[in-house]
Write a structure and sequence with these properties.
heterodimer, A: mainly alpha, 12 helices, B: mainly alpha, 0% strand, globular
């Protein structure tokens, strides 16, 4: 069987009957079977088509890597590692340094996680452990709806609703009471790092909370009952019986959210201010790796300019890939039935 | 688990102290508060979309193309059609590839090293930022054609659809009982016929669910279209010409300085979200029924 040799598993389909078996008048039915079973060529052809589809997934990722590496080699040869530590982005003089974008990406993502994680875990705890049964489905659905809203609509909403709110209320308040930290200084534009962080937080909450719900559900029911039987309150049960066992998976969900925040483009581009500067204050405008590609790629005239943008893309790609792989592994450790720390 | 025994032994004292009760109530309140804080932006986004958008949706908006900046009137007809057009191009590449790869994973690659590699790669592809996909489609199509095009936009979205469709197809096919396949083999049906006419057929509604989810996911994508489909203020049905898309138009209008365009951006956003929520809702309806429960 050609298929088995090609690594096909157990099932190999019907085999043709030996011709001799159909002796004499051994009827038309068997004739049909022999005919039907004689489909090795069709089966092999089908197998190769399907295999090609499967391999195309590998090819796509290969293609992405190939495109990014070849198209960024010019910039790589011109600047080397320095590219990520230089802070002047100057298309006029053809001089490029990506540090402001790296900084903006990291700061906006971390800010987003600081806001999103407590809320997302709170939502997951409420839905899986506290809410009345009839409310669970609707609540889960509504929070997942947040993930269905396209980035560009978040951006639109942020420009016309969130940013004015920040400018008029939140930023003056923060400047007054927390201005001494240095994080909330300068004129309250509304647009800037803080707005980007908040909109990113809203966008990553559904991811973190759905993964958290998934891993919390994977914690065995006996665990909860055992802790309750020892006299724990509900919160003590959740904290010691559920969250503690699910924490590797929750960490995975958080890192998955980080991956999404790092690569998020449109909403951030629309509110972060798009200025390649490194400022301590969260009120100041910034720029992220994804935003600079979105804003400048189609207008990049010089070869080196384009190549520098692709190199920013390559770096973003590698970081998100690593972040996603780490997150997957963490989630698997919980949902595959192995307890968080492997003490089965 | 030893760790829990040590921790829970703290609870041995029988009456629950006031402090512990207070902490318990506080935690419950905090979790409920988190739910409120998360639902607030959701309600605000939908509320504003309807509030700002609905007044601007009229016959002109749905049938006319954009007017020059500053002039009143005009619509997004070309952008709505362009989005559908680009999605169609994307699905001609993305849907067969995704379903094929899903079939490979469930029918041939189960437990094999190649199967695991492909499954893992599909998950990796799922996490690639959409703007990166745009760069790749630019390098593949725009550079070789020499200009921005609907085809390039379609290719970008197709790349984004493949992993979603692959993984849902795989999961749906795995739900089809092994006995069904064996019954077909027992009747002398060849393997490829079994896969297509029995296994895939049985899982049709599930596979369609996956395709719809992929649609919903890419329908609102903007970043990968910025330098592939590029946008267009006029009608275009040519594969090799720049094409408008609803999401691109919303972006352009949102960051413009014109009030009229802002109004239209809200209207476009409302139409986009209605399309997406309708398809997600339809999926939800299908998946909550019977055999597809394992899907989510």
């Amino acid at each position: 069987m050609a298929n088995r040799a090609l690594g096909a598993p157990r099932l190999t389909g019907p085999q043709p009957l030996p011709k001799e078996a159909v002796a004499g008048e051994a009827n038309a039915k068997a004739e049909v079977l022999i005919h039907a079973g004689d489909s090795r060529h069709a089966d092999a052809a089908f197998y190769y088509v399907i295999l090609a589809c499967g391999l195309s997934v590998l090819a796509l990722v290969g293609l992405i890597v190939y495109q990014l590496i070849t198209k960024s080699s010019l910039s790589w040869h011109a600047f080397g590692w320095k590219f990520f530590f230089l802070s002047d982005w100057d298309p006029v003089n053809d001089h490029y340094g990506a540090l402001p974008f790296v900084y903006g990406t990291i700061v906006s993502s971390i800010l987003a996680l600081l806001i999103a994680v407590p809320l997302a875990v709170g939502v997951a705890v409420f839905i899986t452990e506290m809410s009345p049964r009839w409310l669970r489905g609707p609540l889960a659905f509504t929070t997942e709806l947040l993930a269905a809203i396209p980035s560009v609509i978040y951006g639109l909403w942020a420009i016309f609703v969130l940013v004015p709110l920040l400018r008029q209320y939140l930023q003056p308040w923060l400047a007054k009471y927390l201005g001494w930290t240095g994080l909330f200084e300068g004129p309250p534009f509304g647009i800037g790092m803080l707005a980007a962080g908040i909109i990113l937080a809203i966008m990553v909450i559904p991811i973190i909370s759905s993964i958290t719900r998934e891993v919390m559900t994977a914690v065995p029911q006996q665990q909860r009952e055992a802790v309750l039987a020892l006299g724990a309150t509900r919160w003590e049960m959740i904290r010691t019986g559920v969250l503690r066992n699910a924490r590797a998976g929750i960490m995975g969900g958080i890192i998955l959210g980080l991956g999404r925040a790092l690569g998020e483009t449109m909403a951030v581009t629309m509110v972060i201010g798009n200025r390649p500067e490194i400022a301590k204050s969260l009120f100041a405008p910034g720029y992220t790796m994804a935003s600079v590609i979105a804003n400048e790629f189609s207008e990049a005239t010089g070869d080196l300019y384009l190549s520098a943008l692709v190199e920013v893309g390559l770096a973003l790609f590698l970081v998100t890939i690593i972040v996603n792989i780490v997150a997957q592994l963490l989630v698997w450790t919980v949902t595959r039935g192995t307890p968080a720390r492997g003490n089965a | 688990m030893p760790e829990n025994v040590t921790v829970t032994s703290d609870f041995a004292a029988a009456p629950i102290s006031l402090w512990r009760r207070a902490v318990n109530s506080l935690a419950t309140g905090a979790a409920a508060g988190a739910v409120f804080l998360v639902l607030l932006p959701l309600a605000a986004v939908f509320g504003y979309l309807v509030y700002r958008g609905i007044g601007s949706i009229n016959w002109d908006f749905l049938t006319k193309i954009p007017k020059p900046p500053g002039e009143a009137g005009g619509g997004m007809a070309n952008a709505i059609a362009g989005s559908v057009y680009i999605l169609l191009i994307a699905s001609t590449f993305g849907v067969p590839l995704g379903i094929g790869a899903g079939i490979y994973l469930s029918e041939y690659g189960r437990g094999t090293r190649l199967g695991n590699l492909i499954r893992f790669t599909a998950d990796v592809l799922n996490g690639v930022p959409s703007i990166i996909v745009g760069i790749v489609a630019y390098g593949l199509v725009v550079l070789s054609q020499g200009h921005f095009s609907a085809l390039a936009g379609g290719v970008a979205l197709a790349i984004m659809m493949v992993p979603t469709i692959t993984r849902t197809t795989e999961e749906m096919l795995l739900l089809v009982p092994q006995i069904v396949r064996e019954a077909a083999y027992g009747l002398g049906v060849s393997r490829w016929r079994t896969t297509l006419s029995i296994t895939l057929r049985t899982a049709t509604s599930g596979v369609i669910t996956g395709v719809m989810l992929a649609f919903a996911r890419v329908a609102g994508e903007t970043a990968p279209l910025l330098f592939t489909a590029f946008g267009n203020q006029y009608w275009n049905w040519k594969l090799e010409q720049p094409t408008a898309a609803l999401s691109l138009q919303i972006f352009t209008y949102a960051i413009s300085p014109f009030d009229e365009w802002h109004r239209q951006a809200w209207a476009g956003a409302l139409i986009l979200i209605v399309l997406i929520v309708a398809s997600v809702g339809a999926v939800r309806l299908v998946t909550s029924r019977g055999m597809l429960k394992g899907a989510n």
